Amino acid sequence: MAYGTAYKAHDKGPGNEMTEYGGTGDPARSLAILWRTGERPSRKGKPDLGVDRIVRAAIEVADAEGLAALSMRKVAEQLGVGTMSLYTYIPGKAELIDVMVDTVYGELPMPEEVPGGWRARVELIARENLALCRRHPWLLQVATTSRPPLGPNVMAKYDFELRAVDGMGLDEIEMDLLVTLINGYVHGAARGAIEAAQAEKQTGLTDEQWWWAHAPFLAKVLDPRRYPTAARVGEAAGEAYKAAFDPERTFEFGLRRVLDGIEAFVRSRD
């Protein structure tokens, strides 16, 4: 399947941010939480805590402070309850991240009809997934390829995206690979866009301000005879972007090429 999640073990991922890995929890317990098959009713006179409320609080923490700041204690503080009360509903952080991923995937629109054929459907998928990652940057710190949480929203997302490429003359494996390709492209583009946005937030400088601060010094040290192509292309790109990188233009250019490549592949099958 083309989706995954993040969990108990962790390591340094791209950009040296912390990446979570998982799949180590008990499958029966994890699936029961994801599908809400074993949730206990709230006790009379007690606040209705529950999985949904806990997960929403966890998403708020991760959105505001990043995945590294997420802990059961932090979520409990957000809710104004004792930490141990959370474990009645969710065994730990690994399972919590499972449900967080599945929950935010539920934000994706999945219309029954998308006018314009398969290109329009794939473009919608790409744009909505990019928007989702930008709303929840911590998604890129979650290993989301090989071990999916297998919750209802993950399954709905996978089914919707497969239906978008169904009827193109591809076999089932090619359909799965195509969905993986689209999501992989979006995650790469989202990473660059988020890094650019966070750089401005952390440094207080826009990309344009950063570029113009560095440009005069770069012009003095960059020898066009030694780096002729970099000097020529870099000057043109810097003038066009007013920065070293333009995330919006990069995404649009890349998406067109991905769609063109898919179209060429489909035509080659005729």
Description:
- The chain is mostly helical and 270 residues long.
- The protein has a domain at 1-169: Orthogonal Bundle (Arc Repressor Mutant, subunit A).
- The protein has eleven helices and two strands, in the order ββααααααααααα.
- The protein has helices spanning 27-34, 50-65, 72-79, 83-86, 93-105, 117-135, 152-164, 172-203, 207-221, 228-241, 247-268; strands at residues 10-12, 18-20.
- A two-stranded antiparallel sheet has the order 1-2.
- Strand 1 (10-12) and strand 2 (18-20) form a beta hairpin.
- Helix 6 (117-135) runs parallel beside helix 8 and helix 8 runs antiparallel to helix 11 (247-268).
- The longest helix has 32 residues, at 172-203.
By CATH reckoning, the class of the domain at 1-169 would read Mainly Alpha
Q: Write down the overall geometry.
A: flat
> What is the CATH third-level topology name of the domain at 1-169?
Arc Repressor Mutant, subunit A
Uncertain runs are 2-16
Order of helices and strands: EEHHHHHHHHHHH
**Cα distance, first to last residue?**
27 Å
Rg from C-alpha positions?
22 Å
CATH architecture of the domain at 1-169, please? Orthogonal Bundle
Total strands: 2
Largest beta-sheet characterization: 2 strands, antiparallel
Query: For the largest beta sheet, what order do the strands appear in spatially?
Result: 1-2
What portion of residues is helical?
Answer: 55-70%
Query: How much is the average pLDDT?
Result: 89
Q: Which structural class do the helices and strands define?
A: mainly alpha
